[in-house]
């Protein structure tokens, strides 16, 4: 019995301490980190110096167009210091920019809100391959992931795209989006009347 106890004690010494520091995962617009909600309270809960964090984040994202959402990972150390990792913008942002649409489809598989070419998809995959979680994935795997994301957004991936036809498609799409917005507004108003 004493041998097993001594083995257990030696194993405790060898095992590393488990890190229970809190991690923050959020999207922050590039160059627009501010102490106000929602970012300020999240940082305050983790005992991070809010002003220093905002200054550091804004300096790191100064070369990026302001307002682009950046997935940010913050690991807080015991001494109130932090490690800041800023990823590339979300793939949905890139897909919507490439398709030239401001919002995705309300019924993704049934309706198409935009179209992109395989070349667009490949370029987005090359940009996303710089992200830490995707560093070890092949471009083929990232492209497959992006195709699935595009499908859930209502964006169709095509081999070739005629600019004139696509311009007409976007004009028709604007009319559909306006109708959907009116319908949503009517539903909101009806719901407010019911609750009042």
Notes on the protein architecture:
This protein has about 200 residues and is of the alpha+beta class. Helices cover about 50% and strands about 15% of the residues. The protein contains seven helices and five strands; from the N terminus they run αβααββαβααβα. It has a three-stranded antiparallel β-sheet with strand order 1-2-3, with helices on one face. It has a two-stranded parallel sheet with strand order 4-5.
Short key terms for the protein model shown above:
196 residues; alpha+beta; three-stranded antiparallel β-sheet; two-stranded parallel ribbon; 5 strands
Topology:
Elements lengths: L1 H13 L8 E7 L9 H7 L4 H11 L8 E8 L5 E5 L4 H9 L14 E4 H11 L10 H15 L1 E4 L4 H33 L1
Parallel strand pairs: 4-5
Antiparallel strand pairs: 1-2, 2-3
How are the strands ordered across the major sheet?
Answer: 1-2-3
Unreliable spans are none
Mean pLDDT: 87
N- to C-terminal distance: 73 Å
Please tell me how large the radius of gyration is.
Answer: 24 Å
Number of H/I helices: 7
Shape: extended
- How much of the sequence is in beta strands? 5-15%
The total beta strand count reads 5
- The assigned structural class equals alpha+beta
What series of H and E elements makes up the topology?
Answer: HEHHEEHEHHEH
Q: Report the helical percentage.
A: 40-55%
Sheet with the most strands, sense and barrel status: 3 strands, antiparallel
Briefly say what this structure is.
By secondary structure, this protein is of the alpha+beta class.
């Amino acid at each position: 019995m004493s041998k097993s106890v001594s083995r257990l004690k030696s194993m405790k010494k060898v095992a590393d301490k488990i890190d229970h520091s809190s991690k923050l995962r959020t999207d922050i617009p590039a160059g627009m980190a501010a102490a106000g909600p929602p970012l300020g309270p999240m940082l305050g809960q983790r005992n991070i110096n809010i002003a220093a964090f905002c200054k550091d984040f804004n300096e790191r994202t100064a070369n990026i167009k302001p307002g682009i959402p950046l997935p940010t990972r913050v690991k807080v150390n015991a001494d109130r210091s932090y490690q800041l990792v800023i990823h590339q913008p979300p793939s949905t942002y890139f897909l919507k920019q490439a398709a030239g649409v401001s919002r995705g489809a309300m019924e993704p598989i049934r309706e198409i809100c935009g179209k992109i070419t395989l070349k667009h998809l490949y370029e987005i995959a090359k940009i996303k391959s710089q992200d830490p979680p995707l560093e070890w994935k092949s471009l083929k795997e990232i492209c497959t992931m992006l195709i699935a994301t595009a499908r859930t957004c209502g964006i169709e991936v095509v081999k070739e795209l005629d600019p004139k036809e696509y311009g007409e498609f976007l004009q028709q799409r604007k009319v559909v989006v306006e109708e959907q917005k009116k319908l949503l507004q009517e539903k909101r108003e009806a719901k407010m009347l019911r609750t009042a």
